[in-house]
Design a protein that fits this description.
By secondary structure, the chain is mainly α. 43% of the residues lie in helices and 4% in strands. It is globular, with a radius of gyration of 18 Å.
């Protein structure tokens, strides 16, 4: 299985179930699709499972989503290994994702990535970070790129497109990372 990164095998939890709160969210997602089309909820359910699992998607969570959707496990694995938004290995304490699709790149995303890399190298001990910065491709709103991602509240609040990437990069450079 593609792990979206290299390294030793990951210790996997044996069991996964959605919390009661997340079961309600699952029901909301499933209600969006007509009977017989529930497989279409695989992306939001995998995302929900990843959030519940601390930012990564264990095999038990993928199997649980497949069972909920009455979907072959291999189909869920195919989705999870295709999209880089799913982390198939545990992520570290600091984890940033930077979109580097063509629209973002044309507007200066590489400068922001370089600034983040410098900042993390100064502040984060390597053992703590695991994979602190990952390049990925947005599957939404790339035409409005670049968009800052704030995913701390369990939802994607992308805000307004960044008009001046260099100014944003300078702002990131001033952030202090504390324990």
């Amino acid at each position: 299985m593609n792990t979206h990164g290299s390294g030793p095998p990951v210790e996997q939890p044996e069991h996964f179930e959605f919390t009661p709160e997340n079961i309600e969210r699952v029901q909301v997602h499933l209600a969006k699709y007509p009977q017989g089309r529930q497989w279409s909820a695989v992306l939001p359910l995998l995302d929900l499972a990843q959030r519940q699992s601390g930012g990564w998607l264990p095999l038990a969570a993928m199997n649980h989503v497949a069972d909920l959707l009455e979907m072959p496990h291999i189909r869920v694995y195919e989705v999870a290994t295709f999209y880089t938004m799913f982390n198939l290995r545990p992520v570290g304490r600091w984890f940033l994702q930077a979109c580097t699709t063509t629209p973002c790149w044309l507007r200066g995303s590489e400068e922001v990535v370089a600034t983040c890399e410098r900042k993390l190298a100064q502040a984060a001990p390597p053992a703590e970070t695991k994979r602190p910065l990952e390049r990925w491709c947005r599957i939404d709103s790339s035409h409005e790129a670049p968009l800052p991602i704030d995913d701390t509240d369990g939802g994607c609040d992308c805000g307004e497109p960044v008009k001046n990437y260099r100014a944003w990069s300078r702002q990131i450079a001033t952030i202090e990372i504390h324990e």
